[in-house]
Structures are given as structure tokens and as C-alpha cells.
């Protein structure tokens, strides 16, 4: 080997730190020996964006975990006790002219409208209905199919106002609803022939499989870096593996929130069934509040809709930063004498009746119209790389209001939480959060490759019971 004075390796064989600098350019002696000086390194990792994990929403809102043993979850929900006789809006509805005071009105529904309605017209002879503001008597009901059950679809019927001073409004192609308020019979008459059957709706939601991996070679696993990752560990792969796990947990929760059933026949989606997420459930059968809640009128509109759905008295209101500030501005205006209470709503049942517990968990509470809303920032909706937006006008999803109560199963009578996180499990084997390693290093001995692969897998499904009582605030 060539040498260059005092037995040092020649510059042509090994790089010489001193020779790297041009003597004409240096200004002091320290410039020559920067390569051999130890850097003044600060070994703690700076959390530039704070805790970036977004999981925890489902747990904080009372969602429970349950094991499943089939490819889908099914549950039952009762329908309203008092069905409304409704003709679905369609151009196929035969219109009925208005009936003058004391006259009888005949309403006919075409066969096309009957097929399109999807909901039977549950009218029976002798029913009393509200036709607008007029109380009317139902007679001459003609059904499609055999008589004997009130759920057979009505083809035509007649209405007669109870008062000779009242008229019956015209029925156009926009559809009509008749609330059934009772019935009337003459003395000595028989019972009805047709009857109403209680209705229950079966819902199903398939499981979905979420996966992730991380790899590190044997060489990288033994490298020591400059950053202390905790407990004196400087191996960078430890950080990368922990981040991969957190990303997997976040994506798993986001799929339970944003998942959607697949109804596309594209080849790329073959065998991928998808699963209904929380947002999809509300969009399909819940309350969607368009745009921000920023006035007292907006709050009142929400309260009135909650009344219609038999809502719970307490709600967890998870919102993005824009909505949180708008609510703060709304409450700051002061509403003495209006019935809105800020900060001390008097109801903290969701927190064991403890205001201190609510405050400790980061909730700000207010009441209106008998409902208590516990407001909380939703990190997912503020994260700019996910659903967050710097401009209020660009935010697609603004927040959600989750009832802090249980619901009663219509078939079994059991009380269940509004949200339930299900995972596949049987005989001691659980697919809630599977984690295993494949490779030939770091304790793995099931492969010959000079690496280890960290594997993550979860098979999960979210059940949203009583979605009609949940609220999604979104851009429309």
C-alpha cells in the first residue's frame, strides 16, 4: 500500500480530511479539522407536529368492542310505532282534484307508483287521517293483493272531510303523507278485517380487512444513529416501526369512520366487499346538517330534528377547529332569557355527572332546548394531511354529534351502545390487532432473507345503531 509521509496512507488510497479543504479558502485553523471534531449533537427528537396519532375518537364516544364469528354483523332496529300513510313522490301518482266542503275525494295510485314507493300505504277503512289540516274519514280502500293484512299496498281509496266546513286539498305528483290519528265506527259494527304488523328492519355490515407491513435489514437493524428514541435506544428502525404501527392504527380507525360498502363491479375491486363506516351510516339513514352551525337558528334547527328522531338528552359534539370557533363565537354573544346555557348545563350524565371529568377530558358543554352538547375538538378533522383544511370553506367534513346513550335492540330487548367496534375472533384466536414478524433476524427464524418484516392485520366492522339519532355536519 502506498504511503504519504510518516507511514500515513496515500491520498490516492484513502480520503484525507485535511486535503479536502483548499488552503486558499480557509480562514482559521478550525476549518481544517471540522471533520475530526465531534458535532455538538442534541439527541432528543423534536415532535414538530406534536402527537400526530388521530385514534381514540371511538373509545371516547363510548364505542365498545365485541367479537364476531361470521363474515358480517347483523342487527335489528324497530320502526316507528305510528306509521304514516305516504305516497312516494313520483310522476306516476294519479293526481286527485281538491274536494270542496262536504264532498268526497277519490285518490288513485297507478301500478307504477305502487312498485316505486317501496313503502306500503297502510290505510284501512274507517281510519281518520290528517289531509293537510283537515280531519278526513277513509273508505272504499282497494288493495293490490288479498285482503286481511294492512300492509298490502293500497291501489285507491276515498276521503271525506268530517266537517262540512272543511275542504280536501288537491294531490299532485309531488307525493303526499297522511298521518293516521285514529278511527271511527258505527254502533254494532264488526272489527276491522285488515291489521297492522309491527315492522323491524334488519341491517348488516360486512367485515373489512386492513393490512400494513414494515421491513428492516440486518445491517440497518444494527446501525446506531444520533437520535435518542427513548430509554437510550438510538436504532432508527425502532422509530420507523413505531410510526408504521401508529399509521396502521390510524388508518384502521379512519376506515371505521370513512369506510363504504363496495357496489362497483370493477375488476380491481373483485372480492373486496368493503364495510359501512360511521359517516356512510349517517349519510344513508341519519341526520345530515349542511354547513356550519354558527347561529342560534342553526342550533334550534338541529334541536327540532333531534326531537323528531326521539334523540338522547346528551350528545358528544366532535368538530373541527373552524366549527369550534364558530360555536365559541355563538356562545360568547350571550343569550340571556333564550334558554341556552353555557358551561353549566346541569347534565353531565355521560361523565358520571361530573363537570370536572368533562373538563379534564377537554369538553366544553352547553344546553339548548333540553339537550346538552359536550363540544370537543376532533383531531382528525384538523390534520392537514387527512381531513383538515386551513380554510373553513374547503372543509368537507365539519363534525359529528354522537348520542351519549344506549339503544334498545328491537328483537332481543337488550340495551346496546350506539357504536360498536367488532372484530373477528373465535376459540382464543382474535383478528382485532394481529402482529407478527417474518425473517431471519431480531428473533425471527421463519425465513432465510437477511431482514425482518413486521406484519399488521385487522378484520373489523363498525355497527352504528339508531343512525337516525346521529348527526353528521358536512359541506353541502
Give a verbal description of the structure.
This protein has 476 residues and is an alpha+beta fold. The chain has three domains: 1-37, no CATH class; 45-79 and 201-476; 84-197. Helix content is 17%, strand content 29%. The protein is built from nine helices and 23 strands. It has helices spanning 57-60, 111-117, 218-221, 236-258, 278-285, 296-308, 321-332, 355-360, 379-382, and strands spanning 64-68, 72-78, 84-87, 104-108, 127-131, 134-143, 154-161, 176-183, 200-206, 208-217, 287-290, 314-319, 341-342, 364-368, 371-377, 397-403, 406-408, 415-417, 419-426, 429-430, 434-439, 451-464, 471-474. It has a seven-stranded mixed beta sheet. Strand 19 (419-426) and strand 20 (429-430) form a beta hairpin. The chain is elongated, with a radius of gyration of 33 Å.
